[in-house]
Specification:
Catalytic activity: L-cysteinyl-[protein] + hexadecanoyl-CoA = S-hexadecanoyl-L-cysteinyl-[protein] + CoA
Strand content: 5-15%
Order of helices and strands: EEHHEEHHHHEEEEHEEHHHH
Membrane topology: Multi-pass membrane protein
Structural class: mainly alpha
Number of helices: 11
Number of domains: 2
Radius of gyration: 24 Å
Distance between the termini: 52 Å
Largest sheet: 2 strands, antiparallel
Enzyme class: transferase
Helix content: 55-70%
Keywords: Acyltransferase, Membrane, Transferase, Transmembrane, Transmembrane helix
InterPro entries: Palmitoyltrfase_DHHC, PFA4/ZDH16/20/ERF2-like
Length: 358
């Protein structure tokens, strides 16, 4: 196959056949079967869903010199959905409620669907990055020009965001180290039972002392990077709450809460001007994310404190969860201080094949 012979709208599909972007809806067996099942009132099979998604992935392309380039549809959805949500929410209060509710329902419906059909999807990580970029862009180029934000306040917010980025990067780097360690362990233990390693069905890797897979960070969380993960959550919450407070006190009528600390009071006039409305909606979105991240952060702090992983917590009965897991046997619990020192000082070489106790 010679790519130089392709025009900008042609490509070689998954069957190594030459195809054209304009024929993206032609000869799609999976689409025909899915539509036929819907018309007949039958359930679309999982194999049909997977085949349809693979076909969409293969045919979703953009014109490019030397042949059309493939674009992952699940990765571009957040880039379309998030700006649309913020723009629609800027129309009026009811549009804000409608857009936020619609997106929340969409995320709850698509979560399990994507995890089952495209386990290694980048949708949620792209959502995280897109949210961060959009919110920071709105703050710097729309809120700052209102001339209500001090230079020190902007520097502090930028420092919090930088702290989040550093912790996120470290979390992913350490997750990659564990992935290579899991691969090395499996290769050196062929035919033997590997202890302490858990297979992640999402990223399809073996991870030592796995806690859970975070789709929003696109990596596995274990004791090796759990401390960085918790720190990333803390910086993200602090940045989101601080930026939302600065934004709301700039676009709404503020009142003095304590000395120089201001809180928003009356925001009834924000929808009369597009810039004010967009800033207000972005602040509400920041608060919503901060609330969700706070729940995750508190959950992580609680589980580390009692010496239990999220994987173990999810397996508990309702009664055990009501008892906060204190009535169950926690084999990894070493006491409050030792539990925290374990994740703070955890080293990947503790699980290296040459150092691991047999």
């Amino acid at each position: 196959m010679d790519d130089e012979t392709l025009c900008c709208c042609e490509y070689y599909d998954s069957f190594k056949e030459r195809n054209h972007i304009l024929a993206c809806c032609c000869n799609c067996v999976d689409l025909d079967e899915a539509v036929d099942s819907l018309i007949r009132g039958k359930k679309v099979s999982d194999n049909n869903k997977t085949g349809l998604l693979n076909t969409m992935q293969d045919r979703l392309r953009v014109p490019w010199r030397g042949g059309a380039k493939q674009v992952a549809f699940d990765s571009i959805l957040p880039v379309i959905i998030l700006p649309s949500m913020l723009l629609l929410g800027s129309i009026s209060l009811w549009w804000t409620v409608f857009s936020f509710t619609t997106v929340a329902i969409f995320l709850s419906l698509i979560f399990n669907f994507l995890i089952k059909t495209i386990p290694n999807t980048k949708f949620f990580f792209v959502w995280t990055v897109t949210s961060m970029v959009l919110l920071y862009f709105i703050f710097e180029f729309i809120v700052i020009p209102f001339l209500e934000i001090l230079v020190e306040e902007n520097i502090l917010l930028s420092a919090l965001i930088f702290g989040f980025i550093i912790c996120l990067y470290t979390t992913k780097i350490r997750a990659n180290e564990l992935t290579s360690l899991g691969t090395e362990e499996c290769e050196s233990s062929v035919g033997k039972e590997v202890g302490g390693f858990y297979n992640c069905r999402i990223c399809d890797n073996k991870i030592p002392d796995k806690d859970h897979h975070c789709v929003w960070f696109d990596c596995c969380i274990s004791k090796h990077n759990q401390c960085c993960f918790i720190a990333a959550l803390f910086f993200a919450i602090a940045a989101l709450l601080y930026s939302s407070n600065l934004t709301l006190t700039s676009v709404c009528h503020p009142f003095e809460f304590y000395k120089t600390i201001l809180l928003p009071d009356d925001c009834s006039d924000v929808y009369y001007q597009f810039e004010l409305a967009l800033s207000f909606v972005s602040a509400i979105y920041s608060i919503a994310i901060a609330i969700l991240l706070t729940v995750i952060l508190l959950q992580q702090i609680f589980l580390v404190s009692i010496g239990m992983s999220l994987k173990e917590w999810n397996k508990l009965s309702i009664i055990s969860k009501l008892c906060l897991g204190l009535n169950t046997k926690r084999i990894h619990n070493r006491g409050f201080l030792k539990n925290w020192s374990k994740i703070i000082c955890w080293n990947k070489y503790q699980y290296h094949p040459l150092n691991r106790e047999v």
